[in-house]
Structure formats: C-alpha cells, structure tokens
Amino acid sequence: MIKLPTLFWLIVVTTAGFAMFAVKYEVQALADQLARTAKQADNTERSIRALEAEWAYLNRPDALAQMNQQLLSLVPIATKQLHTDVTDIPMRPVPPPPPAPAETVAASDPAASAPQTPAGPAPQSAVAQNPPAQSPATQSPAAQTPAPQSQPAEAPRPVVTAALEAPTTTRSIKPAIAAKPAAVRKTPPHRAASLNELIAQIVESR
Amino acid sequence: MSAAFQFDDNPCRPRHFRPPPCTPVVPDGPAKRALEGCRPRLFIATIAFLAAFGVIAGRLVQVTLLPSGISVPRIARFESPPPPALGRADIVDRQGKLLASTLDSPSLYADPRQILDAADAAQKLAATLPGLDRAAVYAKLTSGKGFVWIKRHLTPDQAYAVNQLGLPGLQFQHEERRVYPYGALLSHVVGFTGIDDNGEAGIERGLDDSLRRRQQPMQLSIDLRLQYILHEELARVVNDFTAKGGAGLIMNVNTGEILAMVSLPDFDPSHPDTLDPDHPNWTIAERMFNRVTLGDYEIGSVFKIFTTAMGLDSGATSMTGRFDATYPIHIGRFTISDYHGKHRWESVPEILMYSSNIGEAKIALAVGGDRQQQYLRRFGLLSSPNIELKEVGKPHYPAKWREVSVMTIGFGHGISETPLQVATAGAALVNGGVLRPATLLKLPPGGAPEGTRVISQQTSDEMRQLLRMVVLYGTGEMVDAPGYVVGGKTGTADKVEGKHYAERKLLSSFLGAFPMTAPKYLALVMVDEPHPNKWSHGFATAGWTAAPAVGRTIVRIAPLLGVQPVDESSPEIVHALTPESMQGKHVEAY
Fold first, then answer.
1. Of A40, B419, B521, B534, which sits with the fewest C-beta atoms within 10 Å of its C-beta?
2. Are residues B170 and B282 in the same domain?
3. CATH number for the domain including B188?
4. A35 at B interface, C-beta within 8 A
5. What is the pLDDT of residues A41-71, one digit of tens each?
C-alpha cells in the first residue's frame, strides 16, 4: 500500500518530468525553425543580391539608350527648353497674317469672306454671322464669353497692343473653321503677353 | 551496558550466534553530554538549510508564477547564427546604383564513381550547360577519379537546371564571384578583382582591405549618368579624330569629389585580359592604363592658367600688365614662338586668350623660378596626386630649375602632370582659391574638407574672368555650351618622343568650369594624338577636339547637376565676368 505523501511526490516528479521534456522539445523545434528561417533569409538575401545585380545590368545606360532609340526616340533636353519657372516660358509668338491662304479661302467660301474685310473686331462679326455655331461654344466655356467685352474695358495695359494684333490670327483661321460649324471652338480673342496676364484674364472671366 | 557490548567484548562468543536486533542505545554519561551538545548545532543547520531552500523556492515562484517587475529575460539568450559572410562589400555610385557586387556562383563537380550512366549524364550536361563538350565531359566522368570539375562559376539559372536533371554523383561547390553590371563603363574607377578576390585595379585595389572588412556598400563620388555621358562624348571625340586614346574627368570644384572619370581605351572588368573585338589593336596593357591618374603628360597651354594665376597672385603682374610678344624668344638652342600670337604687345588677359607662349614665358620670368616652384608645390603640381587609387603617376620636371625651364614651364612644356592633378589645381583656381584633395568617395553633405588656400579670393575672381574671356574671344570658342557660362583653357602640346618633340603628334586638352559666375563643376578632356578630319578643316588642336567635347558634355550634364541655364548676354553676367580693364572695350577676337 503506497502511502499518500509518496503518491503525491510521485505525481509531482512525473509531472515535472513530462513538463521538462515538453519544454525541451518545444525549444528544439523552435531552434530548428529559427535555423530554417535564418537559412531562408540568407537565401532571400542572396536572391535579392542577384536580382539587384541583374536590375543594374538591365539598366545599363547603353542598353537603355539603344532601347530608347528603337522604341521611344527621346532626345536630350535642349538648353533652350530648360526654364527655372513657368513665368520664364515666353508666350507663343503671334504669327503674321498669311495673306495668300486667306484669299483662297475667301474665294472658295463667299459667306466667310465677309468677316475678313473689316479690319476691326473680326471674331465678333464672324461669330455673329454663325449663331448656331456659337451656341455649343457658349455652353461649354460659358465663363469665357464675357472676357472679350470686359477685357478692353479694363484699365489700359501694355498688352493692348497684343490684343489688337490677336484678331488678325483669328481672322485668318475663323473663316476656315466657320465652314464646319460643329467644329467651331471659342478661341480667346485676346492673347496674353505673359503668364501673369493670362492668369489675370482667367480670374477676371470667372 | 548494552548487550552488544557484552557480546563484542566476549572473546568466547560463539561464531554462529547472531545478535538480536539493536535496541536504541540510550547514551549516558559523557556520550549523553556530547549528544546534548549536538542538538542546537543540528537545529541551526536545519534552519540554515530551510532558509536556503525557502529562498530558492520563493525565487522560483517569483520568476515563474508572478508577473514580477524584475527584469528577467522572458526568453533565454539565444545565440542567433552569425550573419552569413557575404564576402566583399558592394561598390555603389553616389545615387546607390550597384557598380560591383559579389554573387553566388556555384561550381559543378562530379564523383565519377557514383555516376550511373556516364554517357547519358554527359549528354544531358552538355545540353544544359553552354560551352561544355560532350566528349570531354564523358572522358571526365569515366576517368574513375573521385573528383572532377565539370564547370566553374555557374549562373543561378544554370545551377537550377542542373539540379533539375536529377543526376546522382553531381555536387555543387559554393563559390562567389565579383560582378560588374556596367562593364567597361567604370573600368578604371572600380577596377577588378583577381583570384581569391584580390583587388587588382581601381578602387578594388586601392581600398582592398576596407572592401574585405566592411559590411555596408562602399559609396563612390561617381555619378553613373555623368560617367556614361563623359564616356560617350570622349569615345566620340577619340573615334572622330582617330586618336590613340583619351582621358576625361568631371569634378565638383567645391568639394573635390570626382563625379566621372574615364580613360580610353578601357577594358571589361569581367574579362580584363581579353582583347576588345571592336578595337583589336588596343593592347591589354594599353587598356589597363589609367590615363587620368597614372599617365603624366606635358599638358601644354592649359598650364598657362597656373602661370597667369601665380603672376597675378604674387603681384608680379596685374590684369592691366602688358608684355611684348612681338618677337620670338631665343634662349640657348630654344626658340619660343607663338602659334596663335598677335605679334605685338599683349595685355595679361590677351596673353591667356590668344594662348601666347612668349607672353607666358615673360610672366613666368617676372614671377621668378623660386616663387614659381613654391606656387607649383602649393598647387600640388610637384608631387604625386593623392587619390584612393594605387594607379597614380607622378609629375616629371627638371631637377635643375634653370631660366629656360622657368620659361618653358610657364607655358606648360618641360613639365608633365597627370590630368587628375591639373583638374584638382584648376578647381582651386576657380573656386575661390582653396585647394581640396580629389576624392573618389562620396562626401556627406557639408563634409567637404577645409582645404588649403593657394591663391587669394581676388586672384580666383580674376581667373574666372580670364577663363571666361578665353571661351568668349579666345582659343576656346568652340566650346559652344550656351547658357552655362563656361570658362576654360585649351591646350595643344606636341608630344615628346625620345628627346625631341614629335611633330604632328599632338595632345589636345581642354579644362573647363561652369557656371563661371560661381563655378560648381569642372570638366577636363584630353585627347591623345588626334588626327585632323574633314569636319575640323585639318585641325586637331584642342579648340577643335577637346573643347567641343567638353561643351557637348556640359550641355548634357548640366541639367542632371541642377545647373540652370542663364542668359549669358545679360548685363550683370557680362559685367561680372569682364575684367575691369576691358569693360566696354572692343575685344579683338582670336
């Protein structure tokens, strides 16, 4: 007959033994896992190194240049294309009115020749002659329509000279476009001389 | 008395007799007294042991069961496996682009005794690995040895493919290999390693120890994009003028960092000892030769900037000084004459602009031999260049500094310098007068060395004006990099062959800095033995070869370096870069 204290100690010893082995095996498993993970990390690291080298190889400037030549045909930026900020960019120069094409258009389209003769506010008259053409235009850039009226009314600026020249371009373009009423786009009648000018125009027209 | 005593004392005790089980001995007398004395000691010992076990038990409970505040590591310290040795450190450029790396490159070997079907294995291996001869592999696999190399340094893909074959008896030996993704582009900068990963050239050799030890990549001051552009432009000028070779350098004048360094002909660091199929006449030794740091050349007229600078800085002359350049100088068996000269009295700016040998010889005489030597030593032009490479040359100059040497050195003859030194000293002339050692390692922001002052700020300002005049009106007109306010100096020298100058063997160079209003970068191009071509109207001088190459390079690199083009004709810039003595005057163009 086993005495009670003996039984107690037997149970304690057995439990402790089992617990110890359980912990030991768990630690072993974890150590194995750690080693596996470390090896995996090492492999990954090596793969990354290989891939980085490959990436560098694929990005050789001469290879990129060759691909560019075949596929993109990009060229280096010319010095004159470089500007420190947007205000440095000159506005598009106003081309002189080409007389020859205007005459041929006038001959082919007598209806459109009418706005060409007056030297004054050509665009307005052209628009006035084609009321159906104006309606789609007024809908979309509605905000811009008051601009022509309000602009000359503003305090006179040095830009006014540009404003006087601007209609000449629209005059040469307008008749050609007027033939296709659907394609009429409302061009701003006043070409700003600088970016600040342009921003001012947009702000005013709102 | 106990019974046991009685039996033991009795000699006649029968041998078969077994004493009865012991009864407790009840001591009395002295024994009893001794036992009585033991009791307290026993008690004390018991208490002590109990206390000790109590402490242990208490501590156990505290550590394991109670959430104690005592910092007991929750996990036993586990010695993590050391990070795998990745071999030599990588080399990267200033933007972190990989210039050299160490990659796994397993080598395949076989144990022929384990090979089951040698013919089949040889067939499969030859089909998998390019460059393997089936018969040779078969011979190896049937040799009966215990170890034969099949192929060294496989790519990862090839190793995978061999594994997929599933042939018994094949094994991989772990090996590493240095790779240079950009090939010849950086050959002289990065260099290459030989067997056992020994650095054999370039940074690999110069910083070999450091590369072996460090874990972090080594960051160079080189900018890959600039290197490519310089390489391309230099190769172009070398090709166009069918030159023997060339050297090019781009440097940050305010820190001494070298942003690009090209020497042509160059080599592929992966195969340094093979001939270039495109240029079979380039010998291996020639391709290995770093013209920027190892070669020393009589750089010719570019050297005049140093003479002019020392003339101005020492007070021997001034911007308004004038020298008679009407007639050639005859001294001993030498005759010093001008190639571009105006044959009249010329002012100091004109002497540099028109590159007058006579004028510079006279400035050098005015400075004097001793002071000339002092200045050259200060510019670092009389000692070996200081750079992180082992391939460094040293300047050659006469041991005895005679009057004729003073004069010829004044215009860059009779003294030979490495292009690196010329660029480093040239940077000091335009950056405000402070010489900073050239370096191939990236400096941290604001980490430029203090440097040593070699000329005054005022002299440096005057030099900037003079170098700008050279490009505007003088021999450097072909630079043609509008907007970047380039200033510089051309140099065309006859090469020395034996003891004489060889006619028609030229060394054309151009040293340019930009923007001259506040110079940031310097570019040097040197072309070795250019031959005239149709485009250059029979010229192979620096103005037609090196100067346009520098101009083309600057136009391409300036946007990358964040240098904004400006309107060069704006009054402020023109005023700032025109010497006071020439303000508003008409300058006779070269």
1. B534
2. no
3. 3.90.1310.10
4. yes
5. 988 988 888 899 999 999 999 999 999 999 9
Contact B97 A56 (CB under 8 A): yes
| Same domain as B269, residue B182 | no
For chain B, the C-alpha Rg in angstroms (whole number) is 41
Inside any domain, residue A178: yes
Q: Does the residue A187 lie in any domain?
A: yes
Reading the block at residue B219, the tokens are: 């960051």
pLDDT digits 0-9 by tens, B43-63: 999 999 999 999 999 988 887
Q: Is the ipTM of this complex over 0.95?
A: no
pLDDT above 90: residue B82:
no
Residue type, A169: T
B61 is a domain residue: no
Same domain, B215 and B280: no
- Which has more pLDDT, B69 or B413? B413
- Does A77 fall in a domain? no
What is the rounded (10 degree) CA torsion for B108, B111, B112, B115?
-90
Q: Taking Cα atoms as reference points, which of B376, B418, B546 lies closest to residue B471?
A: B546
Pairing relationship of beta strands B452-453 and B91-92 according to DSSP bridges: unpaired
Are the Cβ atoms of B81 and A35 closer than 8 angstroms?
Answer: yes
The reply to whether B150 and B237 lie within a common domain is no
**Element (DSSP H or E) covering residue B509:** strand B500-514
Instruction: Please give the residue range of the domain that contains residue A47.
Output: 4-72
A127's tokens: 């628009």
| Nearest residue to B433 via CA among B532, B309, B522, B327 | B309
- Reply yes or no on whether B301 is catalytic: yes
B268 lies in the same domain as B343: yes
Q: Does B48 touch chain A (CB under 8 A)?
A: no
